[in-house]
Amino acid sequence: MNDSTLDSRTQAAATTIRKLLDAVGRVVVGQGAMVERLVLGLLGGGHVLLEGVPGLAKTLTVNTLAKAIDARFARIQFTPDLLPADLIGTLVYNPRDGTFAPRKGPIFANIVLADEINRAPAKVQSALLEAMQERRVTIGDTTYPLDTPFLVLATQNPIEQEGTYALPEAQVDRFMLKLRVDYPSRTEERAIIDRMASTREAPKVEPVVTLDELDEARRLVDDVRLDDRIKDYIVSLVHASRRPAEFGLDITRLIEFGASPRASINLAIACKAHALMQGRSFAMPADVKAVALDVLRHRVIASYEAQAEELDSDRIVQRILDHVPVP
User: Where in the chain is the domain with CATH 3.40.50.300?
Assistant: First the structure.
Protein backbone atom coordinates (compact mmCIF):
# COMPACT_ATOMS: atom_id res chain seq x y z
CA MET A 1 0.00 0.00 0.00
CA ASN A 2 1.54 3.36 -1.05
CA ASP A 3 1.58 6.38 1.24
CA SER A 4 -1.15 8.33 -0.56
CA THR A 5 -3.56 5.37 -0.47
CA LEU A 6 -2.81 4.75 3.21
CA ASP A 7 -3.32 8.43 4.05
CA SER A 8 -6.68 8.58 2.24
CA ARG A 9 -7.91 5.39 3.94
CA THR A 10 -6.70 6.73 7.27
CA GLN A 11 -8.68 9.95 6.79
CA ALA A 12 -11.77 7.92 5.87
CA ALA A 13 -11.39 5.80 9.01
CA ALA A 14 -10.92 8.91 11.16
CA THR A 15 -14.16 10.31 9.71
CA THR A 16 -15.97 7.07 10.63
CA ILE A 17 -14.57 7.26 14.15
CA ARG A 18 -15.66 10.89 14.56
CA LYS A 19 -19.14 9.90 13.41
CA LEU A 20 -19.24 7.23 16.13
CA LEU A 21 -17.94 9.63 18.80
CA ASP A 22 -20.51 12.28 17.81
CA ALA A 23 -23.35 9.75 18.02
CA VAL A 24 -22.38 8.72 21.56
CA GLY A 25 -21.85 12.38 22.53
CA ARG A 26 -25.47 13.15 21.70
CA VAL A 27 -26.50 10.95 24.64
CA VAL A 28 -23.56 10.96 27.07
CA VAL A 29 -22.39 14.28 28.50
CA GLY A 30 -19.02 14.99 30.07
CA GLN A 31 -17.24 11.69 29.49
CA GLY A 32 -15.53 12.41 26.18
CA ALA A 33 -12.18 10.97 27.30
CA MET A 34 -13.83 7.72 28.40
CA VAL A 35 -15.71 7.38 25.11
CA GLU A 36 -12.52 7.95 23.11
CA ARG A 37 -10.69 5.25 25.06
CA LEU A 38 -13.56 2.80 24.57
CA VAL A 39 -13.38 3.39 20.82
CA LEU A 40 -9.60 3.01 21.01
CA GLY A 41 -10.15 -0.37 22.65
CA LEU A 42 -12.48 -1.35 19.81
CA LEU A 43 -9.89 -0.37 17.22
CA GLY A 44 -7.10 -2.20 19.05
CA GLY A 45 -9.20 -5.30 19.70
CA GLY A 46 -8.54 -5.01 23.43
CA HIS A 47 -10.79 -5.29 26.45
CA VAL A 48 -11.41 -2.24 28.65
CA LEU A 49 -11.95 -2.02 32.42
CA LEU A 50 -13.84 1.03 33.70
CA GLU A 51 -13.38 1.94 37.35
CA GLY A 52 -15.39 4.66 39.04
CA VAL A 53 -17.95 5.41 41.72
CA PRO A 54 -21.65 4.83 40.92
CA GLY A 55 -23.54 7.37 38.83
CA LEU A 56 -20.78 8.38 36.40
CA ALA A 57 -22.56 7.00 33.30
CA LYS A 58 -20.23 4.02 32.83
CA THR A 59 -23.03 1.60 31.96
CA LEU A 60 -24.91 4.23 29.93
CA THR A 61 -21.78 4.98 27.89
CA VAL A 62 -21.11 1.33 27.04
CA ASN A 63 -24.78 0.76 26.19
CA THR A 64 -24.85 3.82 23.95
CA LEU A 65 -21.59 2.89 22.20
CA ALA A 66 -22.89 -0.60 21.47
CA LYS A 67 -26.14 0.78 20.03
CA ALA A 68 -24.20 3.17 17.78
CA ILE A 69 -22.50 0.13 16.20
CA ASP A 70 -24.55 -2.35 14.21
CA ALA A 71 -23.28 -5.28 16.27
CA ARG A 72 -24.52 -7.93 18.69
CA PHE A 73 -24.53 -6.61 22.25
CA ALA A 74 -25.00 -8.42 25.57
CA ARG A 75 -25.16 -7.05 29.08
CA ILE A 76 -24.28 -9.34 32.00
CA GLN A 77 -24.96 -8.17 35.54
CA PHE A 78 -22.32 -9.84 37.68
CA THR A 79 -23.55 -10.99 41.12
CA PRO A 80 -22.09 -13.23 43.86
CA ASP A 81 -24.46 -16.08 42.90
CA LEU A 82 -23.59 -16.00 39.19
CA LEU A 83 -22.49 -19.36 37.73
CA PRO A 84 -20.16 -20.02 34.77
CA ALA A 85 -23.09 -21.50 32.86
CA ASP A 86 -24.92 -18.15 33.20
CA LEU A 87 -22.04 -16.61 31.29
CA ILE A 88 -20.90 -19.10 28.66
CA GLY A 89 -23.92 -21.39 28.38
CA THR A 90 -24.47 -25.06 29.13
CA LEU A 91 -25.59 -28.40 27.71
CA VAL A 92 -29.34 -28.95 27.74
CA TYR A 93 -30.80 -32.47 27.76
CA ASN A 94 -33.30 -33.30 25.04
CA PRO A 95 -35.58 -36.11 26.34
CA ARG A 96 -36.93 -36.88 22.85
CA ASP A 97 -33.70 -38.33 21.50
CA GLY A 98 -31.70 -38.62 24.73
CA THR A 99 -28.97 -36.20 23.61
CA PHE A 100 -27.43 -33.04 24.99
CA ALA A 101 -27.47 -29.86 22.89
CA PRO A 102 -25.45 -26.70 23.64
CA ARG A 103 -27.31 -23.57 24.69
CA LYS A 104 -24.91 -20.67 24.21
CA GLY A 105 -24.75 -17.94 26.84
CA PRO A 106 -24.60 -14.13 26.52
CA ILE A 107 -20.81 -14.23 26.06
CA PHE A 108 -21.50 -15.02 22.37
CA ALA A 109 -21.76 -11.39 21.26
CA ASN A 110 -19.56 -8.74 19.67
CA ILE A 111 -19.62 -6.34 22.62
CA VAL A 112 -20.18 -7.69 26.12
CA LEU A 113 -20.84 -5.36 29.04
CA ALA A 114 -19.64 -7.06 32.22
CA ASP A 115 -21.37 -4.81 34.72
CA GLU A 116 -19.79 -4.75 38.20
CA ILE A 117 -17.39 -7.49 37.20
CA ASN A 118 -15.80 -7.69 40.65
CA ARG A 119 -19.05 -9.02 42.18
CA ALA A 120 -18.62 -12.48 40.65
CA PRO A 121 -16.65 -15.27 42.39
CA ALA A 122 -13.44 -16.88 41.11
CA LYS A 123 -15.14 -19.71 39.18
CA VAL A 124 -17.00 -17.18 37.01
CA GLN A 125 -13.85 -15.10 36.49
CA SER A 126 -12.06 -18.27 35.36
CA ALA A 127 -14.74 -18.93 32.75
CA LEU A 128 -14.40 -15.36 31.50
CA LEU A 129 -10.61 -15.69 31.34
CA GLU A 130 -10.62 -18.15 28.42
CA ALA A 131 -13.06 -16.02 26.46
CA MET A 132 -11.03 -12.83 26.96
CA GLN A 133 -7.66 -14.28 26.01
CA GLU A 134 -8.37 -17.16 23.62
CA ARG A 135 -11.52 -15.71 22.00
CA ARG A 136 -13.20 -19.07 22.45
CA VAL A 137 -15.48 -20.86 24.92
CA THR A 138 -15.65 -24.52 25.95
CA ILE A 139 -19.07 -26.03 26.65
CA GLY A 140 -18.90 -29.69 27.56
CA ASP A 141 -16.35 -31.35 25.26
CA THR A 142 -16.68 -28.81 22.45
CA THR A 143 -14.83 -25.52 22.00
CA TYR A 144 -16.64 -22.74 20.13
CA PRO A 145 -14.96 -19.66 18.60
CA LEU A 146 -16.42 -16.32 19.61
CA ASP A 147 -17.70 -13.71 17.19
CA THR A 148 -15.35 -11.17 15.63
CA PRO A 149 -14.95 -8.55 16.92
CA PHE A 150 -15.27 -9.69 20.52
CA LEU A 151 -14.77 -7.10 23.23
CA VAL A 152 -15.40 -7.13 26.97
CA LEU A 153 -16.16 -3.72 28.46
CA ALA A 154 -16.23 -4.20 32.23
CA THR A 155 -17.16 -1.85 35.05
CA GLN A 156 -16.27 -2.02 38.72
CA ASN A 157 -16.97 0.09 41.79
CA PRO A 158 -13.76 0.83 43.74
CA ILE A 159 -15.39 2.04 46.96
CA GLU A 160 -17.73 -0.84 47.82
CA GLN A 161 -16.12 -3.91 49.39
CA GLU A 162 -19.05 -5.95 50.68
CA GLY A 163 -20.04 -8.74 48.29
CA THR A 164 -17.10 -8.12 45.96
CA TYR A 165 -14.08 -10.20 44.91
CA ALA A 166 -10.72 -8.81 43.88
CA LEU A 167 -10.03 -9.62 40.24
CA PRO A 168 -7.10 -12.04 39.69
CA GLU A 169 -3.98 -10.28 38.41
CA ALA A 170 -3.92 -12.67 35.44
CA GLN A 171 -7.34 -11.42 34.43
CA VAL A 172 -6.62 -7.73 35.05
CA ASP A 173 -3.56 -8.05 32.79
CA ARG A 174 -5.85 -9.19 29.96
CA PHE A 175 -7.53 -5.80 29.86
CA MET A 176 -5.82 -3.63 27.28
CA LEU A 177 -6.85 -0.45 29.10
CA LYS A 178 -7.96 0.42 32.61
CA LEU A 179 -9.81 3.73 32.80
CA ARG A 180 -10.43 5.73 35.94
CA VAL A 181 -13.70 7.57 35.46
CA ASP A 182 -13.92 10.90 37.30
CA TYR A 183 -16.74 13.31 38.13
CA PRO A 184 -17.92 15.70 35.38
CA SER A 185 -17.07 19.40 35.55
CA ARG A 186 -19.58 21.98 36.80
CA THR A 187 -20.50 22.99 33.23
CA GLU A 188 -20.90 19.37 32.16
CA GLU A 189 -23.08 18.55 35.14
CA ARG A 190 -25.32 21.51 34.28
CA ALA A 191 -25.69 20.07 30.78
CA ILE A 192 -26.49 16.65 32.27
CA ILE A 193 -29.40 18.20 34.20
CA ASP A 194 -30.75 19.85 31.04
CA ARG A 195 -30.60 16.59 29.11
CA MET A 196 -31.42 13.89 31.64
CA ALA A 197 -33.45 15.45 34.51
CA SER A 198 -36.81 14.60 32.98
CA THR A 199 -39.43 11.90 33.24
CA ARG A 200 -39.42 11.68 29.45
CA GLU A 201 -37.49 8.91 27.71
CA ALA A 202 -33.75 9.53 27.47
CA PRO A 203 -32.25 10.40 24.06
CA LYS A 204 -31.76 7.42 21.78
CA VAL A 205 -28.95 6.61 19.38
CA GLU A 206 -29.26 4.76 16.11
CA PRO A 207 -26.49 2.62 14.53
CA VAL A 208 -24.10 4.89 12.60
CA VAL A 209 -21.21 2.47 12.03
CA THR A 210 -21.36 -1.04 10.57
CA LEU A 211 -19.18 -3.97 11.54
CA ASP A 212 -17.54 -3.81 8.12
CA GLU A 213 -16.56 -0.16 8.65
CA LEU A 214 -15.25 -0.97 12.09
CA ASP A 215 -13.32 -3.96 10.74
CA GLU A 216 -11.76 -1.78 8.04
CA ALA A 217 -10.60 0.72 10.67
CA ARG A 218 -9.22 -2.11 12.83
CA ARG A 219 -7.19 -3.48 9.91
CA LEU A 220 -5.78 -0.01 9.28
CA VAL A 221 -4.35 0.06 12.80
CA ASP A 222 -1.87 -2.62 11.68
CA ASP A 223 -0.79 -0.40 8.77
CA VAL A 224 -0.01 2.64 10.94
CA ARG A 225 3.75 3.12 10.82
CA LEU A 226 5.64 2.61 14.08
CA ASP A 227 9.24 3.83 13.88
CA ASP A 228 11.97 1.71 15.49
CA ARG A 229 12.80 4.59 17.84
CA ILE A 230 9.23 4.59 19.14
CA LYS A 231 9.36 0.82 19.60
CA ASP A 232 12.55 1.27 21.64
CA TYR A 233 10.82 4.02 23.64
CA ILE A 234 7.93 1.66 24.47
CA VAL A 235 10.35 -1.06 25.58
CA SER A 236 12.23 1.47 27.74
CA LEU A 237 9.03 2.56 29.49
CA VAL A 238 8.05 -1.03 30.28
CA HIS A 239 11.54 -2.02 31.42
CA ALA A 240 11.75 1.08 33.61
CA SER A 241 8.76 -0.29 35.54
CA ARG A 242 10.70 -3.52 36.21
CA ARG A 243 14.24 -2.23 36.77
CA PRO A 244 13.89 1.48 37.51
CA ALA A 245 17.42 1.77 38.94
CA GLU A 246 18.87 1.02 35.48
CA PHE A 247 17.16 4.19 34.25
CA GLY A 248 18.27 6.34 37.19
CA LEU A 249 14.89 6.17 38.91
CA ASP A 250 14.85 5.84 42.70
CA ILE A 251 11.45 4.12 42.87
CA THR A 252 12.40 0.44 43.20
CA ARG A 253 10.95 0.29 46.72
CA LEU A 254 7.63 1.65 45.43
CA ILE A 255 7.03 -1.11 42.87
CA GLU A 256 5.94 -4.62 43.84
CA PHE A 257 5.68 -5.89 40.26
CA GLY A 258 6.50 -4.23 36.96
CA ALA A 259 4.54 -4.42 33.73
CA SER A 260 4.36 -7.67 31.77
CA PRO A 261 5.34 -8.13 28.09
CA ARG A 262 1.61 -7.78 27.36
CA ALA A 263 2.08 -4.12 28.29
CA SER A 264 4.60 -3.59 25.48
CA ILE A 265 2.28 -5.24 22.95
CA ASN A 266 -0.77 -3.29 24.06
CA LEU A 267 1.15 -0.01 24.27
CA ALA A 268 2.29 -0.44 20.64
CA ILE A 269 -1.24 -1.27 19.44
CA ALA A 270 -2.86 1.49 21.49
CA CYS A 271 -0.49 4.20 20.28
CA LYS A 272 -1.13 3.18 16.64
CA ALA A 273 -4.90 3.23 17.25
CA HIS A 274 -4.55 6.68 18.85
CA ALA A 275 -2.67 7.94 15.79
CA LEU A 276 -5.41 6.58 13.52
CA MET A 277 -8.06 8.39 15.57
CA GLN A 278 -6.14 11.62 14.97
CA GLY A 279 -6.18 10.95 11.22
CA ARG A 280 -2.48 10.05 10.96
CA SER A 281 -0.92 7.04 9.26
CA PHE A 282 2.14 7.17 11.52
CA ALA A 283 2.60 7.09 15.31
CA MET A 284 4.52 9.67 17.32
CA PRO A 285 5.94 9.69 20.87
CA ALA A 286 2.98 11.87 21.84
CA ASP A 287 0.67 8.95 21.01
CA VAL A 288 2.62 6.70 23.38
CA LYS A 289 2.40 9.26 26.18
CA ALA A 290 -1.31 9.79 25.55
CA VAL A 291 -2.19 6.13 26.15
CA ALA A 292 0.62 4.99 28.49
CA LEU A 293 -1.20 5.68 31.75
CA ASP A 294 -4.30 3.73 30.72
CA VAL A 295 -2.19 0.78 29.49
CA LEU A 296 0.20 0.64 32.45
CA ARG A 297 -1.77 1.67 35.56
CA HIS A 298 -3.15 -1.85 36.19
CA ARG A 299 0.11 -3.58 35.29
CA VAL A 300 2.47 -1.65 37.56
CA ILE A 301 1.64 -2.85 41.07
CA ALA A 302 2.46 -0.42 43.87
CA SER A 303 4.20 -1.84 46.94
CA TYR A 304 2.89 -1.56 50.50
CA GLU A 305 5.51 1.11 51.11
CA ALA A 306 4.12 3.19 48.24
CA GLN A 307 0.58 2.76 49.56
CA ALA A 308 1.77 3.91 52.99
CA GLU A 309 3.08 7.06 51.34
CA GLU A 310 -0.27 7.44 49.50
CA LEU A 311 1.38 6.85 46.13
CA ASP A 312 -0.67 4.86 43.63
CA SER A 313 0.25 3.29 40.31
CA ASP A 314 -0.75 6.42 38.40
CA ARG A 315 1.88 8.52 40.15
CA ILE A 316 4.54 5.86 39.71
CA VAL A 317 3.82 5.52 35.99
CA GLN A 318 3.85 9.31 35.64
CA ARG A 319 7.31 9.43 37.21
CA ILE A 320 8.50 6.90 34.64
CA LEU A 321 6.97 8.90 31.80
CA ASP A 322 8.59 12.10 33.06
CA HIS A 323 12.01 10.49 33.40
CA VAL A 324 12.51 8.19 30.39
CA PRO A 325 13.92 10.23 27.46
CA VAL A 326 11.52 10.83 24.56
CA PRO A 327 12.97 10.03 21.09
Answer: 29-196
